[in-house]
């Protein structure tokens, strides 16, 4: 709690109880704000709350409000090593009787988040089974940015009771790995065999003996192919670039039923799929592993924040919309970062700006910074849809510096890099074999891991 005379305690609504929303709630409360977290599901965890039943979801996830949030499949194991994942003051420890693997299953991360929630007493702030349907400005025409308030309309699942409330501030922590990003393909609308997005993929069994085309060769495309190739008759991976990693190349050469193709040219009504090199196959299923788009179907900002080709903007430092901040903020937007510590530093900054302990630059300076950032990305040849792909430790360190958040530990950065390199080279085995043991030991002896003592852990 701060004591300064200009300190303000705000009534804040956080949307979502995934990792971003949980750490936001903790930091906002720590800063003395009154916090309510609205979560559409019955439990915390966000993406890590596995949802096996997807029957009610549109296979291509084309509805603005999705029925299913999580895109996690049954066999999924983390792709980041556990040591790098923890929030700064809550290491992701190995616990006896749980999944002790370095790249554990998704349920282990959910258990970590539940532990985090219990440890910091966060549950009391969360209203479960409460879906936010509308967020908009109250008396927008007559209010200045400083006293802008927000109307939040939510609906209780089952009873369908609608509640409308007014908050001083809204923190959007609704995630961005649910709404499919789909390609536009000739014949896609008339192709009458099975087509679906990886958002609703759960297990390989329904594809037994099928001929499956996987569109996209990024993380999900590769991971899902690894298990499909064992049950499907044939797996055909189609992607923009045939320049593949050593790891994927090894897998393809090991399996006679795994084939690589360039982009799809046309989907034909009789099930034929033609690729841009003129080759074709007849397929049973097209599985789009083409990534996810940002979507905020509940949010009405009168056009002051828009999603344009996966650029959410304008957002100062991926967090603050200059015309609406600090009463409206976003957490968890960046991609290609070590997520949890970054979300934590975002949460601290948001909490401190709302209390008045920190002040944002002027509207002009925030806009100038955003324009400069966009320009630097354009000059570097980075497409618009990659605006929030950061992939830069220095950026994360500088971001946190503003609120006294410690820079990422060297071991965290190095373990992240060595895992990615291992993934590129050894796709099939990287989650079980590695050669960065020395760095792991360094991590386990660092203050991050020893802050609670080692008694809880069988490290
Ligand atoms: C297949 C897959 C694998 C991944 N693997 C890794 C990994 O190995 N390591 C890693 O660091 N990250 C991984 N991620 C990324 C993962 O999304 C993040 O780790 C993390 O979950 C992001 O947290 P978040 O809180 O921002 O969003 P989410 O986890 O998506 O949580 C958002 C929450 O908001 C709620 N919500 C949304 N809309 C509403 C609404 N209208 N009303 C009320 N509540 C709402 C949702 O129900 C959800 O609980 C993976 C993602 C996917 C899809």
UniProtKB/TrEMBL annotation:
Keywords linked to the UniProt accession: FAD, Flavoprotein, Monooxygenase, NADP, Oxidoreductase
Coiled coil region boundaries: none
Descriptive protein name: Flavin-containing monooxygenase
Obligatory cofactor(s): FAD
Origin species: Stylosanthes scabra
Pfam families linked to this entry: FMO-like
Gene3D superfamilies xrefs: FAD/NAD(P)-binding domain
Superkingdom assignment: Eukaryota
Similarity comment text for this entry: Belongs to the FMO family.
EC number assigned by the record: 1.-.-.-
């Amino acid at each position: 709690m701060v004591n300064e005379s200009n300190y303000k305690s705000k009534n804040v609504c956080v949307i979502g109880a995934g990792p971003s929303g949980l750490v936001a709630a903790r930091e906002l409360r720590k800063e003395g704000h009154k916090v309510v977290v609205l979560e559409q599901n019955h439990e915390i965890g966000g993406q890590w709350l596995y949802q096996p039943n997807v029957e009610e979801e549109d296979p291509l996830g084309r509805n603005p409000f999705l029925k299913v949030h999580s895109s996690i499949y049954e066999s999924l194991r983390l792709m980041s090593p556990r040591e790098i994942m923890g929030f700064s003051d809550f290491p992701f420890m190995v616990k006896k009787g749980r999944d002790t693997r370095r790249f554990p299953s998704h349920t282990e991360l959910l258990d970590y988040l539940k532990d985090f929630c219990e440890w910091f007493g966060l549950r009391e702030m969360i209203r479960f089974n409460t879906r936010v349907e509308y967020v908009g400005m109250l008396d927008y025409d007559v209010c200045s940015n400083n006293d802008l308030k927000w109307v939040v309309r939510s609906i209780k699942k089952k009873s369908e009771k609608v509640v409308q409330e007014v908050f001083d501030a809204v923190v959007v922590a609704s995630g961005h790995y649910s709404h499919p990003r789909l390609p536009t393909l000739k014949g896609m609308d008339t192709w009458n065999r099975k087509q679906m997005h990886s958002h609703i993929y759960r297990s390989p069994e329904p594809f037994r003996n099928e001929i499956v085309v996987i569109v996209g060769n990024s993380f999900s495309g590769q991971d899902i192919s690894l298990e499909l190739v064992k049950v499907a008759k044939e797996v055909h991976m189609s992607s923009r670039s045939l320049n593949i990693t050593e790891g994927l190349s090894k897998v393809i050469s090991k399996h006679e039923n795994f084939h690589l193709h360039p982009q799809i040219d046309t989907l034909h009504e009789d099930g034929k799929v033609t690729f841009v090199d003129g080759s074709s196959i007849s397929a049973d299923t097209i599985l789009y592993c083409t990534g996810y788009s940002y979507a905020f179907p509940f949010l009405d900002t009168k056009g002051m924040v828009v999603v344009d080709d996966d650029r959410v903007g304008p957002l100062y430092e991926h967090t603050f919309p200059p015309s609406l901040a600090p009463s409206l903020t976003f957490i968890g937007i960046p991609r290609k970062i070590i997520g949890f510590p970054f979300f934590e530093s975002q949460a601290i900054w948001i909490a401190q700006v709302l209390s008045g302990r920190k002040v944002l630059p002027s509207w002009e300076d925030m806009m100038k910074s955003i324009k400069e950032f966009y320009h630097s990305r354009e000059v570097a040849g980075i497409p618009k849809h990659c605006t929030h792909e950061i992939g830069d430790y220095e950026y994360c360190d500088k971001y946190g510096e503003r609120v006294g958040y410690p820079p990422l530990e060297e071991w965290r950065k190095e373990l992240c890099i060595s895992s990615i390199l291992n993934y590129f080279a050894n796709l099939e085995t990287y989650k079980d074999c590695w050669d960065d043991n020395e760095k792991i030991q360094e991590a386990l002896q660092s203050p991050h891991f020893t802050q609670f003592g080692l008694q809880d852990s069988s490290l």
